[in-house]
Amino acid sequence: SLLPDTLRAALDRAGVDALWVSSPENIRYLSGFTSGRDARLLLSAQPTLYTDARYTVQAQEESRFPSFIARPPATLAHAAPAVEGLRVGFEADHLTVAELERLRAHWQAGERPATLVSTSRVIDTLRQVKTPDEVARVRAAQALADEAFAAVRPFIAAGVRESDVAARLEGFMRERGAGSAFGITVASGPRGAMPHGTASARVIGNDELVTVDFGALLDGYHSDMTRTVAVGNPSEELRRLYRAVLEAEEAAVAAVRPGATGGELDAVARDLLGAHGLAEAFAHSLGHGVGLAVHEGPSLRAASADVLVPGMIVTVEPGVYVPGVGGVRIEDLILVTEDGHEVLSRSAKELL
Amino acid sequence: SLLPDTLRAALDRAGVDALWVSSPENIRYLSGFTSGRDARLLLSAQPTLYTDARYTVQAQEESRFPSFIARPPATLAHAAPAVEGLRVGFEADHLTVAELERLRAHWQAGERPATLVSTSRVIDTLRQVKTPDEVARVRAAQALADEAFAAVRPFIAAGVRESDVAARLEGFMRERGAGSAFGITVASGPRGAMPHGTASARVIGNDELVTVDFGALLDGYHSDMTRTVAVGNPSEELRRLYRAVLEAEEAAVAAVRPGATGGELDAVARDLLGAHGLAEAFAHSLGHGVGLAVHEGPSLRAASADVLVPGMIVTVEPGVYVPGVGGVRIEDLILVTEDGHEVLSRSAKELL
Ligand SMILES: [Mn+2]
Ligand SMILES: [Mn+2]
């Protein structure tokens, strides 16, 4: 069999003989093929990558599994003999209802129909724990983002458009061969009350806070960091928000270690913000895993039972958002190590 | 009812009382809310946008429908009374199997269960025909892309990295307040044989062809254009490929008019390339619609029965790919008008 033992064991745990992989990140993770959005992977004793003729050369160069070039539904017809009589899992969190209907039509019509089994996070769970090579890639992406922030930080000033700050960050990363991990947030003044407002045409004013949330995408792997910086002399109310978030963030980061659960870490930050009367203003979860996807497991949110283990890379990103006033978010990227953690994001957190 | 008549009619045609909208582009199209990836829309007599607390302010500012702030599954519980006894469509091409299972659990447990109905392209079909305002946005995105190409074209030369060409295009668009519509393709020399290879670290050589496929993303709307340019004096073999693709492209563009089908247009280009012995080398479909998504309907591919009508915006993009030798693709962005078409992409197509 061409199937590595760890993958065989994962299929066994899921109770399936094979897995129809439709998540682009999972396809890339398993096969090395970088255009997973236009591909499917049948993970079985003889794994096969399916993609179309636009990618004939690329599939040969990149995929560690043999590829078959066809467009759906010819792909499903080709796979049909290979799945006869098997229990075939599908990724219920990714597969569309329409595609499941096509799998049924192609794989359950014959004399030895496949049994289709709903699965969840079979490969995603494996991806949470990074190999040393993967850690090195995320580390490199974050190091580049730190460099970009250092280069662009002096440019964040009154009179500058939010979108110009974003353009400079993106330009810096592009020049270094990286992409932007997601739409960059640059939220100034009252726009800081929008946790995920991207950069707008708004001109940054004096005595405002500016929240900058961005990451690099390098070699398939992401980084993710947020800094909130002061322009001029923000009000004492804004400074109070900043100190509260920084206190919560540092406490939660300090608690990152193997064995901690996502729920426990979320509670560390949420309880501290609650003590400042800011529980309601912390309108999202504490953090998430980062890797081939910028948002992946484990989940650091209220009541999450996800347990941290060495090799996971997670964000810690408490924030508070006060409509009409503004907001603060501080986010670090953290590697879980054998005896605790290492903070990968190095940009300063002093409110200058 | 808050539901516009055109939407009411679309639901009637689909045989449903309401539609659970999960496609991010469809959510944006219907509601105006720009973060559709983190939202759902219940399109019914009283439409409701569902999103989470990160977007409280943004939903109030952007959505033309009332919003309810909650994370799943609280959203489904809130919607349950509103869908009692109704026929509720879901978007089978977008909805995941796992989410359908959650809809069933929340909406079919009570005494007056909803009937869940698989639908396809109910809203996508409406989106294919652009309003004058939408045409203006795509036109503006393409005009910016043409400007970017004119500015960067002199920089495409032997000794320059592909990724540097991509960075300049992206930087130009960023400075003008736009994003990149998708990962930019810059494929030089033998890499031209990869229809969708993005820009690599490869240094462009002399006497090569360079295929550049890119678009602007402005105000939610995309453009899409490909040019293949010569560096130095490419071989006669490469020039022959270029002339064949240009001939096929211009013939297909000339055939764009109301009433033409996607399959007919694809055949125009495919037959001409076939006459040059290049049918096999044309390894993808002719084109696609462009709007809120960079790839949307109508489909211009072999046997497509999609009929062009005024207001559609489509690409025409034949290409040939010869492993070990190189490739050519030429793509224009075309508006279907009452009496034919208008070419929105203006960059020159001479092989300099
Ligand atoms: Mn984050
Ligand atoms: Mn295109």
TrEMBL record, chains A, B:
Keyword set, alphabetical order: Aminopeptidase, Hydrolase, Metal-binding, Protease
Domain Peptidase M24 per the UniProt entry, residue ranges: 137-338
SUPFAM superfamilies per record: Creatinase/aminopeptidase, Creatinase/prolidase N-terminal domain
Superkingdom to which the source organism belongs: Bacteria
InterPro entries the UniProt entry points to: Creatin/AminoP/Spt16_N, Creatinase/aminopeptidase-like, Creatinase_N, Pept_M24, Pept_M24_MAP, Peptidase_M24B, Peptidase_M24B_aminopep-P_CS
Residue ranges constituting the Creatinase N-terminal domain according to the UniProt record: 6-129
Signal sequence interval, chain numbering: none
UniProt keyword Protease present: yes
Pfam families named in the record: Creatinase_N, Peptidase_M24
GO molecular function, one term: aminopeptidase activity
PANTHER family: AMINOPEPTIDASE (PTHR46112), AMINOPEPTIDASE YPDF (PTHR46112:SF3)
Protein name: Aminopeptidase
Organism: Deinococcus aquiradiocola
Organism phylogeny: Bacteria, Thermotogati, Deinococcota, Deinococci, Deinococcales
